[in-house]
Amino acid sequence: EAQVTQNPRYLITVTGKKLTVTCSQNMNHEYMSWYRQDPGLGLRQIYYSMNVEVTDKGDVPEGYKVSRKEKRNFPLILESPSPNQTSLYFCASSLGGGVTEAFFGQGTRLTVV
Amino acid sequence: GENVEQHPSTLSVQEGDSAVIKCTYSDSASNYFPWYKQELGKGPQLIIDIRSNVGEKKDQRIAVTLNKTAKHFSLHITETQPEDSAVYFCAASSTGRRALTFGSGTRLQVQP
To answer: Which residues of B fall within a CB distance of 8 Å from A42?
Structure first.
């Protein structure tokens, strides 16, 4: 089954404690992205990757890091989480960037206290 | 950059009625306009999309219309059913862009 898998689904952490949210896709897609979803703001792109070792900032990259060492995996790293990073996070993959269907993971609800 | 505005933010209809959600975009270069449905506890899922060379597209009970001159596009759901209850997002992008720009979402509730 074609899917994007994120882990964990739920995470509560304390300010400043580094965390990683994993994302994996099995569709051999070149493009992968991370979005955050906040009430009234829709989905905003954090980072994207066009291929292995190729990443770039999206609209809201501050406080986040990513890496793409393998085509299927695209982890999101928060080196020093802060309460304003409390949000619902989605990983997505697509065949051809912004003009092809994006496949989303189930989401990770992060709370930073 | 692109800016997408979506209205209304919430919409409640009776089962069997039609629902219409409207979006406007700012970048005249945008040529791809998808709609995503997000059910509770799940990620968004594409339900229909339209490209700029087409004015209307239908898929069973859902349809999307595009007016490039006015820079707006709309989602139409006919004969609504309770399972249509979800949050709907419009989005816009253009060839060469790396990501979609999403609207703020519409929570649709279909009352049985």
So the answer is: 4, 6, 89, 102-105
